[in-house]
Known about the structure:
Elements: E1 3-7, H1 14-23, E2 31-34, H2 39-46, E3 51-53, H3 67-72, H4 74-88, E4 93-96, H5 99-112, E5 116-120, H6 131-141, E6 146-149, H7 152-160, E7 168-170, H8 187-194, E8 207-212, H9 221-228, E9 235-240, H10 248-260, E10 267-271, H11 276-281, E11 285-287, H12 298-306, E12 310-313, H13 318-321, E13 329-331, H14 336-348, H15 350-367, H16 370-388
Amino acid sequence: MKILFLDQSGKLGGAELCLADIAQQFQSNSLVGVFAEGAFPDYLRKRHIPVKILTDQPLQVQKASGLLAGLKSLNRLIPLITQVTHLSKQYDLIYANTQKALVVGAIASILSRRPLVYHLHDIVSPEHFSATNRRIIITLANRAALVIANSQASRDAFMKAGGRGDRVHVVYNGFRPEDYGPYVDKREYFRKDLLSTPQIVDQPPSFVVGHFSRLSPWKGQHVLIDALQYCPDNVIALLVGDALFGEQDYVQQLYQQIKTLNLEHRVRFFGFRSDIPQLMAACDLVAHTSTAPEPFGRVIVEAMLCGTPVVAAAAGGAAELIDHGQTGWLTPPGNAQKLADIINICQSYPSQSKVCAQQAQIQARQRFDLEGINLNIKSLLSGVVKTHY
Ligand code: UDP
Ligand code: GLC
């Protein structure tokens, strides 16, 4: 099967990491068309996945943009669509992985008569998208032969917004369990590195809560910082991730919040890192704190695979990943006090929380195994190709 994958982002976000794992199995005769140069195409090249940068002029439309911004970007969109239409004639299907890729891919699919597949990584709701963008996504996605939703929550929101349910299949992100350890044995070694910052004093031994998300208001790093106020002094937070989409105001707000609460000695920023499993293994707890429903939440599964206890905000796909009290904990989104309660329980009862983490690891290895998930995707795509030709 020859597939033309399309993704708008040059950045390495969860949707791109997921796509790389899917595209890898088709690497001998497929292509990933990306709308910007950056860490994502670099990541694909390192993995020997063929990649082509389709434009050097980024499309300016944002998730919250209205019709006007969309129309203004037409001068950039038309050459891109022409190029993708031409390119797609060499492939059996077009696989759009993001919204702008859907716009380009859907029009190209009509012109080149190639079937369209849309991988839905988002919750199509007013919290995430403007009304115009929701309408565009639904109208175009309803033309797709197949929509792969990354969670039931994403599927439900899609249908609530007017998406056709008959072509939607829920397929969770897959992971290679072996990529996530075992690093627990090396915990002390990694921990030294984690805590090597002048203002963090590891006496008495710190309880380390890791947060592994891009810095963005809806990812809710501020909720974790707030929660620290209700935890003992030796609970510290590590914020791993960067402001991938230019959310510098939010980063400044976080620094200000830390200063106001006198928490400089208890919060450390790491920026973007490529050694997530090692860092997670060195944490006592991983916190996921999104304030809007998380479509899936790769970091939650990654923490489970590392054998590190995880607490997540109970909304969207995150609530499907954790069985509260059995494989982790769920707290109400945006509630710092309830998050602090769970942090304090984990600190006070380490052996119980370890049992929970072990159960989560066993379950995650089965439920999110990349090999099985890739087979599922391959069979869905074969069905599309068979029906179309
Ligand atoms: N990630 C990373 N380095 C960082 C922060 C995050 O590689 O410094 C990875 C993380 O391990 C996860 C992905 O980025 O695989 C984020 O995916 P998720 O689904 O959690 O959220 P998204 O940012 O896609 O909404
Ligand atoms: C998107 C979503 C995230 C999800 C990822 C992979 O980036 O924001 O929740 O885990 O896609 O499907």
